[in-house]
Amino acid sequence: MTRTTRVIGVDSSTQSTKAVLVDADDGTVLAQRAAPHPPGTAVDPRRWLDACDAVVGDWRGEADAVAVAGQQHGMVALDADGLPVHDALLWNDTRSAAAATQLVAEMGGAQACADAVGSVLVASFTATKLRWLRDHRPEAAAAVTRVLLPHDYVSWHLAGRHTEPFTDRGDASGTGYFDARTSAWREDLAASALGHDVALPRIVADGAAAYEDAFVVAGGTGDNMGAALGLGLVPGDVVVSIGTSGVASAIAEDPVADGTGAVTGFADATGRYLPMATTMNAAGILDLQARLLGVDHSELARLALAAPPGANGVTLSPYYGGERTPDRPRATGLWAGLRPTTTREDLARAAVEALLCSLADAVDLLASRVGGCDGRLLLVGGAARNPAVRALAPAIFGQSVHVPPPAEYVALGAARQAAWALGGTEAPPLWKPAGTEVLDADPTPFVREAYADLRDRTGAWTQPERTS
Ligand SMILES: Nc1ncnc2c1ncn2[C@@H]1O[C@H](COP(=O)(O)OP(=O)(O)O)[C@@H](O)[C@H]1O
Ligand SMILES: O=C(CO)[C@@H](O)[C@H](O)COP(=O)(O)O
C-alpha cells in the first residue's frame, strides 16, 4: 500500500526547535516533537542543528519535503570553511543598539532607512550585529565570508550543504540589507555594516524548492511569516503571538515604510508584506513572575485571576531585558504602586496585565500604520495557553479575541510551504484553517491607562544616552 504524501515543518525559534510531520493533502498533523535550545541571547548556532536533527530524525525517511521557519534577524557569521566565527547574536541581544543608531544616521536618517530597507534599524536587525562585530571583534569580523539567518543555516544543513545557502524574501526583509519591494539584496549595506564584502544567500522564490534530490527542501522563512502561513491569515486579521517575543502582525498588499520605527515593514512568504510591531519581553514576563512567586504557570494564572482588574493599583513596566517597542534597549523592569497590603495575587495580576498592555500597545501601533486591521484578533504562542492571559486579553484589548487550538502554527506554516514546494503549484495548498474559540469580556481601559502612565513617566529615566 502506498503511504500518503507527508511533509515536515520545522520551527527553529528562540527557546526550542519544534517540528511537525504533516499529511500534505489536508494539513493533518500526524506527529509533533520538540528539543530545547541553549538559553541566552548569544548562542553557538551548531546547537540549533543538533536540535533540528533530534526532532527531524527518522521522519526524513517517511516524508517527501521539509521547510524551516526560524527566529528572525539572528546573525550567523561564517568563515571560509563554513564555521561560525562567533556565537550567533539573536534578535533579542541589545549589545548592537549604538551600532543601530550609527547605521541609521549613515543611511540618511530614520525615514531614509525605512524607505531603503522597509524598517528603521534597531538592535534586533542583522546589519547592526555585523557592525557590532566589526567594531568589537575585528579579528572575527575579518574572517567572515558569509552571513546567514538562523533559518538559512538550519535549511542549508538539511540540504546536506549540497547547494549554495539560500533564504527567502520574508526572512531576508529582517536583515537591514534587503529591499523587499524589489526582492533584492543591498550588498552595499551589508558590506558597509561589516567593513568588507560578504556573501549573502540566494533568494528562493516563494513556494519554490531550494534543493531537491529524493527529498525537497523548500526556501523556508522567518518564524512570524511561518505563523501567518500556518494560521491561514487573511488581510484584515491581526495576529498577536506571545512567545519569547510579543508580536502583532498583519498581512498587507502594499509595503510599509514607517519612519517612526514603530512598525517594521517585513515581507511575508507569499509575495505580500507582513508589517509588525514587536516586543522583546513577552512570555518571559510570566516565566520570571512564576519564578519569583515560586509557582508554576497554572498557579500563576489562579493567583492573577483572584486579584481585581488593576491589581489594587500595582503596575509593572515589563521591559526587563531592554525593549524595542518602545525603543528602550537598556531599560529594566520597574514596579509601581506597591503598598504594605499588596498581595501575591496583585503581583501575579500586574504581570499578566503588563504583558497584555504591552501587546495592546503593539496592536495599536500596527493598526495606526496599516489600514484595514479590522478583522479578527488572533492570539497564539506559548503563553497564549495561560488561562489568565486568555481571560484578561479581551478586557485589555477591548475587543473579542479569537484563540485557535494550541498548536505549533509556525511549524505548521513551514510544513505548508514544504507541501507548496513539493506540489509546484502557484499558491500554497488550501489546508482548512483552524477553528477558533471566541473570547469576550468587559473592557478595562483604566488598566491600560495606568500602564501607559508608568510607561510614559519612566521613558526618560530608562532611556540610555545614545552615542552616534
Ligand atoms: N501555560 C503557560 N503560561 C505561561 N507561559 C507559558 C505557558 N506555556 C508555555 N509558556 C511559555 O511560552 C514560551 C514558549 O513559547 P513559544 O511560542 O514556543 O516561544 P518561542 O517560539 O519564542 O521559542 C516559554 O517562555 C514558556 O514558558
Ligand atoms: O524579532 C522578532 C520579530 O521581528 C521576533 O519575533 C523573532 O522572530 C523571535 O520570535 P520568537 O522566538 O519569539 O517566536
From TrEMBL:
Domain Carbohydrate kinase FGGY N-terminal, first and last residues per copy: 7-206
Record's keyword annotation contains Transferase: yes
Entry's EC annotation: 2.7.1.17
Keywords, ordered alphabetically: ATP-binding, Carbohydrate metabolism, Kinase, Nucleotide-binding, Transferase, Xylose metabolism
Every Carbohydrate kinase FGGY C-terminal domain range: 239-422
GO MF entries: ATP binding; D-xylulokinase activity
InterPro entries: ATPase_NBD (IPR043129), Carb_kinase_FGGY (IPR000577), Carb_kinase_FGGY_CS (IPR018483), FGGY_C (IPR018485), FGGY_Carb_Kinase (IPR050406), FGGY_N (IPR018484), Xylulokinase (IPR006000)
Keyword Kinase: yes
This protein's name: Xylulose kinase
Record organism: Mumia zhuanghuii
The gene coding this protein: xylB
